[in-house]
Specification:
This protein is of the alpha/beta class and about 350 residues long. It has 13 helices and 7 strands. The protein has a 5-stranded mixed sheet. It is globular, with a radius of gyration of 25 Å. The two termini are about 30 Å apart. The relative contact order is 0.07.
């Protein structure tokens, strides 16, 4: 982050009413007031450039872009980190003051401000995820309904399709037509969900082909269409993170820690950050483990002494760090590249 601007403003956003908290550094005058939605940008329009702190919540990316357009610096922060600065009862004024305090703390990490295009890609991912969830629920419901009449078939899509066709043909001879027709409608709805998901994936593929960053990381083993597009859109600006380790930690692919008296104990992975992106990376790591003909030497060594799930997380962590390196340094993926710590070369 650049040098701290003259004034820091904490903003607690909402749908229609915004709470402002700021202290003038010259006079010490405290301002804590509410602004209507229509007044929000005009209040900042004629002010000198300042640091605006906000929680990363619904609509915050939109307001961050608008404020940046007015020349202000914006620091979006996770609500969980801001909560630690609320000393008493929770209300809008207390939240705005907590945001004001948190915005000035170097230990509070900022969430990247995304472009509208990056948010559009993430919106496609969110819609696709919901459609996949609905498809799975509907398929399981159909399985359960026909199982009540003794019809059981394979778990995979091909087995489900063949089994459902045969099951309905048999059940139509002994069950009421009203039930068979309803089951067929539900089955047809599954096909429509498949088509909608396929159309979204086609749009993501078209975006990947035109986006240089997404194409670059798609070359990394284990990173496919979904991971590449989601990683670029979620990360925002790669140099928001100081290193690949920080990016991997932000996703939650590092152990949580607890310690006292100088003794630190490592726990399970922290699972911080974006659940969706972390799950895609873990799935990609599983894919490499299953299908790779020869695993990297370092991964083979870990496999000898650690459980399979730990190995998977280690590989997902490596993938995340590689993604950051490719994007931050704007270079193509090189399978043979060997990283060297700074200062180790003569």
């Amino acid at each position: 982050m650049n040098a701290t601007p003259k004034t820091v403003v904490g903003v607690d956003t909402a749908k229609n009413v915004f709470q402002i908290y700021t202290v003038d550094k010259d006079t010490g005058e405290l301002t804590s007031k509410q602004l209507k939605r229509s007044q929000f940008l005009s209040w900042f329009a004629n002010r000198e450039p300042c640091l605006v702190g906000m929680e990363a919540c619904g609509g915050s990316q939109h307001w961050a872009r608008k404020l940046q357009g007015l020349g202000h610096e914006v620091k979006l922060m996770a609500g969980k980190t801001v909560k630690a600065f609320v000393p008493g009862n929770k209300n809008d004024a207390a939240d705005a003051r907590a945001i004001w305090v948190a915005a000035q703390q170097s230990c509070v990490k900022a969430v990247a401000v995304k472009t509208e295009e990056q948010q559009a890609v993430l919106a496609l991912h969110r819609i696709r995820r919901q459609l996949v969830k609905n498809r799975t629920a509907q398929r399981n419901e159909l399985r359960g309904l026909v199982a009540e009449y003794g019809e059981v078939f394979g778990l995979r899509k091909a087995g489900f399709e063949a089994g459902m066709k045969e099951a309905l043909a048999r059940l139509s001879e002994r069950l009421p037509a009203m039930l068979i027709d309803t089951l067929r409608e539900q089955w047809d709805e599954l096909h429509r969900l498949d088509e909608r998901i396929a159309r979204i994936e086609a749009r993501l593929l078209a975006w990947l082909r035109q986006d240089r960053a997404a194409r670059a990381i798609a070359e990394i083993p284990g990173v496919g269409l979904l991971t590449a597009t989601a990683a670029v859109a979620t990360m925002g600006q790669p140099k928001t993170f100081r290193s690949g380790r920080e990016f991997a930690a932000w996703i939650g692919l590092v152990p949580a820690q607890t310690g006292t008296g100088g003794k630190v104990r490592l726990l399970k992975i922290s699972k911080r950050g974006d659940i969706y992106l972390r799950s895609l990376l873990v799935q990609g790591a599983h894919s490499i483990q299953r299908h790779a003909k020869v695993l990297p030497t370092w991964l083979q060594e870990i496999s000898k002494r650690r459980p399979s799930n730990v190995v998977t997380i280690a590989l997902a962590n490596k993938m995340a760090r590689t993604i950051w390196a490719v994007l931050a340094h704007e270079r193509a993926y090189d399978r043979a590249y060997v990283s060297v710590r700074p200062g180790t070369l003569n």
